[in-house]
From TrEMBL:
<dbReference type="InterPro" id="IPR001000">
    <property type="entry name" value="GH10_dom"/>
</dbReference>
<feature type="active site" description="Nucleophile">
    <location>
        <position position="441"/>
    </location>
</feature>
<feature type="domain" description="GH10">
    <location>
        <begin position="207"/>
        <end position="506"/>
    </location>
</feature>
<keyword id="KW-0378">Hydrolase</keyword>
<dbReference type="Pfam" id="PF00331">
    <property type="entry name" value="Glyco_hydro_10"/>
</dbReference>
<keyword id="KW-0326">Glycosidase</keyword>
<dbReference type="InterPro" id="IPR008979">
    <property type="entry name" value="Galactose-bd-like_sf"/>
</dbReference>
<keyword id="KW-0119">Carbohydrate metabolism</keyword>
<keyword id="KW-0624">Polysaccharide degradation</keyword>
<dbReference type="GO" id="GO:0000272">
    <property type="term" value="P:polysaccharide catabolic process"/>
</dbReference>
<comment type="similarity">
    <text>Belongs to the glycosyl hydrolase 10 (cellulase F) family.</text>
</comment>
<dbReference type="InterPro" id="IPR044846">
    <property type="entry name" value="GH10"/>
</dbReference>
<dbReference type="GO" id="GO:0031176">
    <property type="term" value="F:endo-1,4-beta-xylanase activity"/>
</dbReference>
<dbReference type="InterPro" id="IPR031158">
    <property type="entry name" value="GH10_AS"/>
</dbReference>
<dbReference type="InterPro" id="IPR017853">
    <property type="entry name" value="GH"/>
</dbReference>
<protein>
    <recommendedName>
        <fullName>GH10 domain-containing protein</fullName>
    </recommendedName>
</protein>
Amino acid sequence: MDVVFEGNAVGWAPSGAVTALSLHHEHDPARLPTSGVGHGHKPTGRYVLAAGRAGEDDGLCQAIPAGALKPRVTYRVAGWISVAAAAASDEAAAAAEEGAAGHPVHVSIRVGGRAVDGGAVCAEPGKWAELKGAFRLTEESLLRGAAAVVHVHGAPAGVDVKVMDLRIIATDRKARFSHLKDKTDKARKRDVVLRFGSGEAAPAGASVRVVQVDNAFPFGSCINCEVINIPAFADFFTAHFDWAVFENELKWYWTEAQRGQLNYADADRLLDFCDRAGKPARGHCIFWAVDGDVQQWLKDIPSNDDRGRAGLAAAVDSRLRGLLGRYAGRFPHYDVNNEMLHGRFFRDRLGDAVAPRMFRDAAALDPAAKLFVNDYNVECGNDPAATPEKYVQLIRDLQRGGAKVGGIGLQGHVANPVGEVVCDALDKLADATGLPVWITELDVREPDVALRADDLEVVLREVYAHPAVEGVVLWGFMEGHMWRPDAALVGADGVANEAGRRFLELRREWKTDAGGRVDGDGVFRFRGFHGTYVAQVATAKGKMLKAFTVDKGDEALVLDMGV
């Protein structure tokens, strides 16, 4: 583990308007956190307290040793943060009461007048929140020669901030990949025994070639009405992806931009395209919880009286019945109320009970569809509003209201991903809920295409190795046709760049191609990835082809192939 910065308790200095810094020790073991994700050691209990802060930019800082940070390296920011209110301050007491559920505290890396996000937590009084940030610096920022400084800040004025054992660690993705090999093997492979006869009928010594046709783990991409008419896009999509999701065409603001004027023609076109290509599609999305993504006519419905609320509730019901009544059985998945960790449009107007009701009504209208929650930043460790713990709480609240939550969507709009952080989020979600997880909108933003390839590999290897993850959908792949810039895998000409080639290499790596000879007992054994296969056997009677499927299972799969 390459630790480039170790937050020395006596090395911190005030930043901005701070009354005092003081050193303390957490003596009660019950109040100490457990070992952190990739931190390297247990918490020491020693922490520094920044008191008398006048504003959110005020906090504490410490210089990073000169030359410690290198360009093009992903650094992990680890440690623990807590908050406390100064008892003598009415302002602080009010802030503490308001923030009983937690205050956002941020860590920034400041180099040459520029601040780089190093992570954030939702810190609660009396508890230690684990910091799981990451950052990367460019050569340009380091060439300026300015000193690098860690800055901790962000809670409201009057709230004291505590920092324990903050470290900056250079990540080692190759070491992580090595660690994932056994995990991947256990999650995605199975022992297979092919029987070709016994006794005298056994074709001992016959040549066998087993080739995997399809991996059971699906990869998909978003599509829209423009890109399906681009031959290079359509060719790459049909050749390398298994699932689709519509970028905008199923969203309410698209299908009913003006009240009562329904437009399903675009969604129908995309469904026809998917049907011809043999690709199932996710239904994204029935509702969207974020105010900025709700069409104006919905916002214009008054919600301050019973009549207005009844009108909005009727619109919600009409949307459900119109969409799911039209497409029942066509979409295996639906994102029901998108991004509820970041928006409350319907809940603020119709009450919290509306969210589980959306799930209940959707399940009644299309019982075969899996109904998902879907949100962003949960896998990144940098958004106090979107922690795995808050996502779990949201899911439990929905379930208590009778919602049949069928899966968890992690969008995956990432930069500087750290495998251990992604894994930690997956572990917490899977352990607490037992629900399957899909990565629903993956894109990796990085101007340097070589680093983009590395970052993409970090995410894909991590999620593929995790048993709770059942599929990955990319939020586009072609240059000029993506929501986020600097995230493409394929140029406008349809030729894969370095990131695209890495994606294709991984897809090839995760397919089994085995060969050998039938043993004296008429058996050929191999261990392969889950999916569909063709076996070719060459005997004295000629060549024989047999198709078979390897499903998940802990025991060896034994198949009678005949001769």
